[in-house]
Amino acid sequence: MNSDDAREMLAGSLGGASATVIEYPMDTIKVRLQDDGKRYGGVVNCIRTIAKDEGVVNGFFRGLPAPVIGAACENAILFISYRSVLEEFQKVAYSKCYPSDQEPYLAVGVAGAAGGIVVSQVLTPAELIKCKMQIQNTLPVEERIYKNSLDCAAATYRRRGVRGLFRGHTAMMIREGVGCGFYFLAFQSVIRCFLPEGKSFHEASPWVHFLGGGCAGVAFWTSTYPVDAVKTKQQTMKSDFLKLNFRQACVRLYKTEGMRGLFRGYSVTAIRAFPGNAVLIAVYEQVNALWEI
C-alpha cells in the first residue's frame, strides 16, 4: 500500500464512521417505513411510536456497531477504488491523466460507479445485519432472537451460510453503482463551482465541503431510492419477498404498494443525507489536508 492509498483509507474510514453515527436515527426511521409503512403512517408518527415504545437509545440506535464498522470499511474502499479507476479510465479513454479534481465528468461518473460496485461486496452483509437489527423491536417478543449485531451475523451465517449474508446483493450493487456515480458527479460539480482558480479541493473553505458533500448525499439517494426500498424488503426477510429475486421483488412491491411503496421514507432519507454526507466529506477533506502538512 502506497502513501496515497493509506491517506484515502484513513480519510474515507473516519469520514464514513462519523457520518453513520449522525445519520443512524433517521436511517432507522427510513428502514421502519420501508419495512412496514402502513403500521406507522408517516414520519412523525414513526418517530413518536419508536420513542414511546422502545426509548431513544434502544429504538433509534439499535444495531449501530455493524453499520459504523461497515461504513468505515465501505468509504475506505470506495475512495481508493474511485481514485484507481479514475486514473486508469483516463489513460484508456484520453491517453492521459488530467490534473487532480479537473478530470472529465465522464471519467468521474464511471469511476464513481465502479467504486460503488466494488464497495457493495463489503456493504451487503453489513446492511443486511443493520436492517435485521433495526426491525427486531417490531417483532413479537419471542422472535427477537438477536442479542447484538455480531450475534445476528453469526446466526444468519449458521442458518443460511454466506448466501444468507448476501441476500439483496443485486439490489445493493445497483444502488451503489448508480448512486456512487451520481454522488461523485454531484460533489465534483458543486465544489468546482465554488473553488477559486488555482486552489485544490483540500484548500476549499469548510462550508464548500459541507455543501458539496450534502448535495452529493441527496443525489445518491434521489437516484437510487426505489432500489433501496426493494433491498430493504429482501433483507428484512418478509415472507412475501423471501424467495423473490430482484426483478420479481420490484414487481411485487409495485403491485402491492404502488409508487408510494417505492418512495416511502424518501423525505427523511433526503433530509438526513445532507448533514451526514456533509460531515463525511468535511472529515475526509480535513484528514487529507492534515496529511499533507
TrEMBL record:
<dbReference type="Pfam" id="PF00153">
    <property type="entry name" value="Mito_carr"/>
</dbReference>
<keyword id="KW-0813">Transport</keyword>
<dbReference type="GO" id="GO:0031966">
    <property type="term" value="C:mitochondrial membrane"/>
</dbReference>
<keyword id="KW-0677">Repeat</keyword>
<dbReference type="InterPro" id="IPR018108">
    <property type="entry name" value="MCP_transmembrane"/>
</dbReference>
<keyword id="KW-0472">Membrane</keyword>
<dbReference type="InterPro" id="IPR050567">
    <property type="entry name" value="Mitochondrial_Carrier"/>
</dbReference>
<keyword id="KW-0812">Transmembrane</keyword>
<dbReference type="GO" id="GO:0022857">
    <property type="term" value="F:transmembrane transporter activity"/>
</dbReference>
<feature type="repeat" description="Solcar">
    <location>
        <begin position="204"/>
        <end position="290"/>
    </location>
</feature>
<feature type="repeat" description="Solcar">
    <location>
        <begin position="3"/>
        <end position="88"/>
    </location>
</feature>
<keyword id="KW-0496">Mitochondrion</keyword>
<keyword id="KW-1133">Transmembrane helix</keyword>
<protein>
    <submittedName>
        <fullName>Putative mitochondrial mitochondrial carrier protein</fullName>
    </submittedName>
</protein>
<feature type="repeat" description="Solcar">
    <location>
        <begin position="103"/>
        <end position="193"/>
    </location>
</feature>
<dbReference type="InterPro" id="IPR023395">
    <property type="entry name" value="MCP_dom_sf"/>
</dbReference>
<comment type="similarity">
    <text>Belongs to the mitochondrial carrier (TC 2.A.29) family.</text>
</comment>
